[in-house]
Design goal:
The protein is α+β, with helices and mostly antiparallel strands and 377 residues long. The chain has 2 domains: 27-84 and 206-370, 3-Layer(aba) Sandwich (Beta-lactamase); 90-196, no CATH class. It contains 13 helices and 9 strands. The strands form 2 sheets. It has a 6-stranded antiparallel beta sheet with strand order 2-1-9-8-7-6, with helices on both faces. A 3-stranded antiparallel beta sheet has the order 3-5-4. Helix 2 (85-98) packs parallel to helix 7 (176-189) and helix 2 packs across helix 8 (193-202). It is globular.
């Protein structure tokens, strides 16, 4: 199989700054940002964890885990992370590539034969990772339980033609990324993708109690509830989605994960410098994964856009060094990221839904303090 070539980056940056350099303690400043956001009503509850060169620099929380403001957030509170889970999925898949179970140029139908037909035959793994399959429309379902049925959703994808030609325009696979990437991975690994994620990412970092895709009933009491009070028109889709027990218990890792900010930060710290002694991916894999993968006829528009994908991760950073920062945001405002120049890895969780999404001012204030380019993803 021919592997996907590695384009040259626009600007090469060092993997990290001098780890011996003096670094100010920014934790009090960051705590103040969180406290002020809660006090003003901008946020209900939130967590922020920052690693620098694999070492914990800040583990902070503020506010409340419920809209009624009766349960204080702790470092152990589990928050809905929505699409932030796609970054974790991506890392698990890259590890399978490193194990040579599959390549980026493999045709999906080669390992998942039922996927062939109706214009899907030549869809490649790299197109799944870069959201360029044309399979971004979720199959219709009669209820939430059906959406949480992994085998049924995978089957339904095999009955749908791409909405746009594969390999062309980037069309965000909001829900379908779970089944497109996950079933492909499961076929080559010989096990369900839920087990793949557990073995490849969650267990090596010891995150079993802090990152869950398929929430056990016993963990419900640790979960933050979504606060939709900023919307006058009533419950939002996110509240309806996670308000269904079938969705919370099911496995839809592109959208239904729960995690602490520390779990997200540890995941990205382990990509940069081996957090807790674990190095999840090689630097060569990161080099390949953090190069922009847009078609020549689908350039970034003049006003910009958030969906600047490499191989699975969303790319950010200065315009002349796109991909220096990489990670993924989520519908509720959570995010996880790593910055290859500064050695920073960050996890941020929150539970107040915002009409301004993906613009979350509290994240911008955190970014300014840390010297990171703001992201609206």
């Amino acid at each position: 199989m021919k592997d996907l070539p590695l384009p040259r980056r626009q600007s090469q940056s060092p993997a990290g700054i001098d780890s011996s350099a003096e670094q100010p303690d920014l934790a009090p400043v960051l705590q103040g940002i969180l406290d002020d956001a809660v006090a003003s009503g901008e946020e209900c509850g939130c967590q922020l964890t920052v690693f620098r060169h694999g070492r914990l620099a800040a583990r902070l929380c503020a506010g409340f885990a419920d809209p009624a403001r009766t349960r204080p957030v702790t470092a152990e509170t589990l928050f809905p992370i929505f699409s932030v889970g796609k970054g974790v999925m991506t890392t698990a898949f890259h590890r399978l590539v490193e194990d040579r179970l599959i390549s980026y140029d493999t045709r999906v139908a080669e390992v998942w034969p039922e996927f062939g037909g109706q214009g899907r035959d030549d869809i490649r793994v790299w197109q799944v990772l870069s959201h360029r399959t044309g399979m971004h429309l979720a199959p219709p379902t009669k209820d939430w339980a059906e959406m949480a049925d992994w085998d049924e959703m995978c089957r339904r994808l095999t009955t749908m033609a791409p909405a746009v030609p594969p390999g062309g325009k980037c069309c965000y696979q909001g829900l379908t990324y779970a089944w497109l990437l996950g079933e492909t991975a499961g076929r080559v690994a010989g096990k369900h993708f839920q087990q793949v994620m557990q073995e490849q990412v969650i267990a090596p970092l010891g995150l079993e109690d802090e990152m869950m895709f398929g929430l056990p009933a016993a963990a419900e009491e640790r979960c933050a509830g979504l606060d939709g009070t900023a919307f006058a028109q009533g419950p939002q889709w996110a509240e309806a989605f996670l308000g269904r027990e079938a969705v919370r218990r099911g496995f839809i890792p592109s959208a239904n994960g729960f995690a602490t900010a520390t779990a997200l930060a540890r995941h990205y710290a382990a990509l940069l410098s081996g957090g807790d002694g674990v190095q999840l991916l090689t630097s060569a894999t990161l080099d390949r994964a953090t190069v922009l993968r847009r078609h020549a006829d689908d350039p970034i528009p003049p006003g910009g856009c958030w969906n600047k994908f490499g191989l699975g991760y969303v790319l950010a950073g200065p315009e002349d060094d796109l991909g220096r920062t990489f990670g993924h945001g989520g519908a509720g405002g959570a995010e996880g990221l790593a910055d290859r120049k500064t050695g920073l890895a960050l996890g941020f969780t929150k539970n107040k839904l915002s009409p301004r999404h993906p613009d979350h001012p509290v994240r911008d204030r955190i970014s300014r303090v840390l010297g990171l380019t703001p992201r609206h993803w």
